[in-house]
Write a structure and sequence with these properties.
Helix content: under 10%
Number of helices: 1
Radius of gyration: 23 Å
CATH topology of the largest domain: Jelly Rolls
Low-confidence stretches: 6-10
Length: 270
């Protein structure tokens, strides 16, 4: 009887361990499926729109791939002439997490507007670049602004929000400021920074810099100013932005992007 009890107890223990194993496997979280928007080789999956130029005219080879990096450069420009540019991924997104590794680098183009020193950005919920007019300076979109510190020693956070042709709700009200500063620390030029953007359609938006949440707001919508020479049929003020294109910015400051990846959260829509 003693031996039977021992084997019965052992059998029960083994059964429990097996059940626990199955439960662990069943409850194991699904692996996140991140998609590389930048393949490390070329920008064939991307489209270009630069102010004063036609759609997909990559004037001056502004956007190029070298050493596995998307580089934004102006060495083939004459005068800058407000030739702000954007490199758009080929398809729109609605609910997503976006991760980008970037660094502000090189010498600012001295005839560009002063605010563009050490300045770049990631646009999201942008209008389709095909709908932009030739002399439209900025896409109607929301910008995840990327800045580096200057030589004056003053704080200059990155991961800010700017709103060309749009509005957002911040702390419960529509905020009419063109840019809202984040709580990030200041990063130096030539320093690689990890930027993450979490966008849930037309509800909550979260900016993350090097793992720290630095800004949150909600309800991105068409409105505001700053954008010029647009098609009036596109700029419908008050229209909530539920989706749009993602773009990397050029505005007079060289910048490098070595990773651009996305996690589609569409299945999490309520």
């Amino acid at each position: 009887m003693k031996h039977k009890g021992y084997f019965a107890g052992a059998t029960l223990l083994i059964g429990c361990l097996i059940c626990m194993g199955f439960a662990t496997i069943h409850n194991k979280p699904k692996k996140e499926h991140w998609v590389q928007l930048f393949n490390g080789k070329d920008i064939k999956d991307w489209n270009v729109k630069i102010n004063h130029h036609d759609y997909n005219d990559n004037f001056g080879n502004t956007f190029r791939v070298e050493d596995g990096i998307i580089k934004v450069r102006y060495d083939k420009y004459g005068a800058f002439d407000n030739q702000y540019g954007h490199l758009y991924y080929k398809k729109p997104f609605s609910h997503f997490k976006l991760r980008v590794e970037y660094r502000i680098t090189g010498d600012w183009k001295t005839d560009a507007p002063g605010y563009t020193i050490g300045n770049s950005g990631i646009m999201y919920h942008s209008q389709d670049p095909k709908t932009m007019l030739k002399d439209q300076d900025w896409p109607i979109s929301v910008e995840f602004q990327l800045l580096c510190g200057l030589d004056d020693g003053k704080p200059r956070p990155t991961g800010n929000m700017c709103s060309p042709g749009t509005d957002i709700v911040y702390k419960g009200i529509i905020d009419d400021r063109h840019c809202i500063e984040s709580s990030s620390k200041t990063y130096k030029k030539e320093e690689w920074v990890n930027a993450e953007l979490i966008v849930l359609g037309d509800s909550l938006v979260t900016h993350i810099i090097n793992g720290d949440t630095v800004l949150q707001y909600s309800k991105p919508q068409i409105g505001g100013g700053v954008v010029n020479n647009y098609d009036k049929n596109i700029k419908i003020d008050g229209k909530r932005l539920t989706q749009g294109f993602i773009a990397l910015q050029s505005e007079g400051q060289p910048v490098d992007f070595r990773k651009v990846e996305i996690l589609d959260l569409s299945e999490k829509k309520k």
